[in-house]
Amino acid sequence: MRTAIFVGSFDPFTVGHDSIVRRALPLFDRLVIGVGVNVDKHYMWPADERVAAIRRRYAAEKAIEVKTYDDLTVDFARREGARFVVRGVRSVKDFEYERDMADANRALGGLETILLYAEPELAYVSSSLMRELERFGKGENLPRPSQREGALSEDKTEKD
């Protein structure tokens, strides 16, 4: 079974992330979305809410699992039996960072990195931009996963 992980903080999960998941899914038998938790970071949404939103988004996809992790990516991959990590790249800056991480992941755990380039119309979308727009009430101005299913901002609005 070919297993890959797709990891990030996903705070929030964006249409760009969704695009990477949809394009990676046919390449693997199993795709584990790892929601990273770093005690030194401050998140807009708690990990359990991020996981729940992503699980709702892919509830019909039997090949997708969503889990949290708070250690090294290579250790998470090893626990999940994954030999590949899928990463999205929007720019040269992203590429340089991902190349360095790919080298480290390969050296530390034999983990191979599969890079998928952002769709041109989504290259500007980022979680940090989404958070900034949400803070100022402009989150609806960015593209969302289709029908905003599982969108964290929608969940947050319902709780307010």
Automatic annotation (TrEMBL):
- Tell me which residues bind substrate: S9, K41, T73, R87
User: Keywords of this protein's UniProt record, alphabetized?
Assistant: ATP-binding, Coenzyme A biosynthesis, Cytoplasm, Magnesium, Nucleotide-binding, Nucleotidyltransferase, Transferase
> Which residues participate in ATP binding?
S9, F10, H17, G88, V89, R90, E98, L122, A123, Y124, V125, S126, S127, S128
To which protein family does this belong? Belongs to the bacterial CoaD family.
Q: Which GO terms describe its molecular function?
A: ATP binding; pantetheine-phosphate adenylyltransferase activity
Q: Where is this region: Disordered?
A: 136-160
Localization, per the record, is: Cytoplasm
What this protein is reported to do is described as: Reversibly transfers an adenylyl group from ATP to 4'-phosphopantetheine, yielding dephospho-CoA (dPCoA) and pyrophosphate.
- UniProt organism field: Segatella baroniae F0067
Known EC number: 2.7.7.3
So which cofactors does this thing need?
A: Mg(2+)
SUPFAM superfamilies for this protein: Nucleotidylyl transferase
Q: How does it assemble?
A: Homohexamer.
Q: Which reaction does it catalyse?
A: (R)-4'-phosphopantetheine + ATP + H(+) = 3'-dephospho-CoA + diphosphate
Q: Membrane spanning segments where?
A: none
Quick one: a GO cellular component term?
Answer: cytoplasm
Pathway assigned in UniProt: Cofactor biosynthesis; coenzyme A biosynthesis; CoA from (R)-pantothenate: step 4/5
Q: Where is the composition biased (Basic and acidic residues)?
A: 151-160
> Mind telling me what this protein is named?
Phosphopantetheine adenylyltransferase
